[in-house]
Every structure is written in C-alpha cells, then in structure tokens.
Write a structure and sequence with these properties.
The protein has 18 helices and 20 strands. The protein is globular and about 60 Å long. The chain is of the alpha/beta class.
Length: 467
Amino acid sequence: MSAFTQQIEWDNNLINRYDLAGPRYTSYPTAPQFQESFTETTLLHAITRSNQAQRPLSLYFHIPFCDSLCYYCGCNKIVANNKSRSLPYIHRMIQELSLYADLFDNRRQVKQLHWGGGTPTFISDDEMSLLMHATRRLFRLADDSEGEFSIEIHPGRVSIDTMKHLRDLGFNRVSMGVQDFDPRVQKAVNRYNTFEQVSELMQGLRAQHYQSVSMDFIYGLPLQTLSSIKETLTKIIDLNPDRLSLFNYAHMPHLFKSQMLISDKELPSAAEKLDILHFAIQTLEAAGYIYIGMDHFAKPEDELVRAQQARKLQRNFQGYSTHKDCDLIAVGASSISMIDNIYVQNAKDLNAYQQKLDLGLLPIARGFTLNDEDQLRRFVINSLICHLRLDFAELEQAFTISPREYFAAEIAQLAPMIEDGLVTVDNSGIRVHNKGRLLIRRVCMVFDEYLQKPVQSGNQVRYSKII
C-alpha cells in the first residue's frame, strides 16, 4: 500500500518533540536568501538558457486588491474602496507581460496560468477580459483540455455571472478561501461567506463545467473550537470540493499589522490546535481525500494525486502543484518568477512597481541565482517533501555524486528521526514513513544548507511552526 493512501499515524509526543519553526519550502533556497544585488542582466541570461531548453511556461498574475481586510491575512494586499485603482495596475501588468513576451520564444506553450492576490475578482468583468485577451495575444496558451488556468476567489464577494464570464475567458479551475463557516469566527477575523452562498456558488461552478474546485480552510483562528470545526468540516465535505488546503494560522502581528486586530486571548491553545488538526485530517481521509502532504488534500482522481503518483509533483509559491516541467513567469507587484536556475521577485511596493514600468524597465527588486549545490539540495528537498522518498541512484545519475558520502553529515543528523521511526536510510535511499509525514518540513530542514550556517546578529529569520 502506498504511504499516501494510508491513514496518517498520529503521535503527540513526536509532534511536540519535532514541532520547531521552519520554512515551508515553496522554494529552495527560500525567499530570505534573495539578494537586492540581483541584476536584470542575470535575468536575461536565464531567459536565454530557458529558451534554449524549450520548456513549457507557467504564468502567474498577482492582483493585490481586496474589498475588505481579513485580519489574519499575511499576503501582499491593498484594501481599497476605490475600484478605479485597478485599471492602471492592469495596464502595467500587460506592459510587464509584453516585455517578457519580447524575450521568450513565442513557440513555447503556456500550460498553466494563475491569478492570485489579494482578490482577483476585485477587478471588473471588462478588466478581466482586457487582461486575458492581452495574455492570449502575447503568449500561446494551451487549450481547455490541456491547460490548467485557475483563479483565487472570495466566495462571499463574487457572483455566478462573473464566474461564468471567467469560464468564457478560459479559466477552468477555481480556488476559494472559505476559512470557516462559524459566524463568530468570521466576525473575529472580518471574513464573511455563508454556507448558502458557497453552496449556491458551487452549484453554479459545476453547471459551468469548471474542471476543479479547491477550498482553503484555516485552523487556529480566534474562537475556533473542536466542536465548531466539526460543523465546518461537515459542511465542506458536503460541498464536495476536488481539493482542500488546511492551513495553520500563524499569529505574527510583529510582521503583519492586520493581525494586531486579533485578540491573543481568543486564539486556541497549541494543544487545541493539534486536536483540531488531528480531527480534520482523520475526517478528510475518512471522506475519501488523499493527504498529499503538509496542508494539501485531493480526491483520488485529481491531477494533484496523479502527479504525485507519477513523481511529477512540485512545490512552488502556490504550494503543491502540477506541471513540474514549466518555467514560471510572474507579473505584478511582489510576484516571484522561477526561470531556469534563478528566482526573481518584483518590487513589493505598488508605486515602486509602477515607476519602474513607467521607465520601460522590468520591475524586479531582488533575486537569487542557484549554484550547483543549491540545485542539488533543491532536488533533494523537493523529492522528500513531494514524494516522501529520495532515491540515491536517481540522485547519483542526475548530479554525479555518491549520495551516502556526500550527505554523510546530514544522514548523521537524521539518526534521532531514524530511531523514532520517522525515516529509514539504506543503500537505496531515504524513505519517510507514515509517522514522519506530518513532520516532513523538519526532515527537509536537515538538507537546508542555509539553516546550517551561523546567523549574523539582526539577520535572524522568524518562521512559523511546522504544525
């Protein structure tokens, strides 16, 4: 039986022992390693290598605007009542996309496209058409049967008519942030969507033939209890989404000012959060969902499950994702591209982003070039976090190393985890057992070279807890 089809093995003692703070590994190296000294020339060289490789493309658009402030949110967003702010921003994104279109080989196909935010449906239907038509003019998009074109939505603030418009534009997947159905919790975080609204929306999405619907749900929010979570999960399962993401709320008001509006006294304790997570995982598995890893679940027939089975799953800035073979072009403020062996992030500040484009420049602010060691360790971490295994023969063939010798120090660090039954190391490779699945980030941290380096005073990076 595959480890992914087994019910998760829960051990509170092990969780408490290994539940440290650590990266989520949506990239390796992680974003704190990005450097402001990164140049546009480095990006252009990476694009040249990317064109030579002729990999397919993925496009990401960051639309940061929201109608209202969700207190828990740590995203780069702009809460605005003035809808007129969006059109100048869309024109800048089209301008940025046009700059990239001039640099990339126009024979390369876009297999994946995603609008994130913020709340992309903040913009009007006409603005959606403008942006999507420009994208099709500048890049060669796959057809509906082959392309994965998704959008994030707030189910309490989008109409069925708008979703029909988006389907006509070519979107075939939806990710909606439900978060919680309890009215008390919704009031505590200023995020509202009723079960009736979401249910009506789901019926509309199915009638409009969206291929996949994903729902986000957050545990650890103020006033959440095990009893309230049971009610919310029952409703979510009744809604029958294709995928689910179960995110841990990380309360870090020192980083995110909006979280100061959440009362510490109303947050569930660490023990209560563990009980909620345990119940949620058991409930979703019993309902037939496959636990992909970390915070992702999917139905057995979903493409995410098939990608994992085919060892084509990846971690990127949207979490677990298909289309591992794509180079990612990201446009919009704060968005991060992943092209050949580089990461490059746009300016986070909206004015700085727009000013660079007004000068005819790509709006990049910082980036990172992966050396051979980084690419080796990215391969290791992606294999472990996506597939719970690292095959030494595959690693040796790809990087011409003797894995047991090369990673002797890291394997030695795994000794306590081996003793606790989290992992096994033998001549064939490393295997993460069922008991270690919840702690996969901790396993990956052993291979993170940057975590092993001494931290200079003032440069300490504060990560969220693993669980």
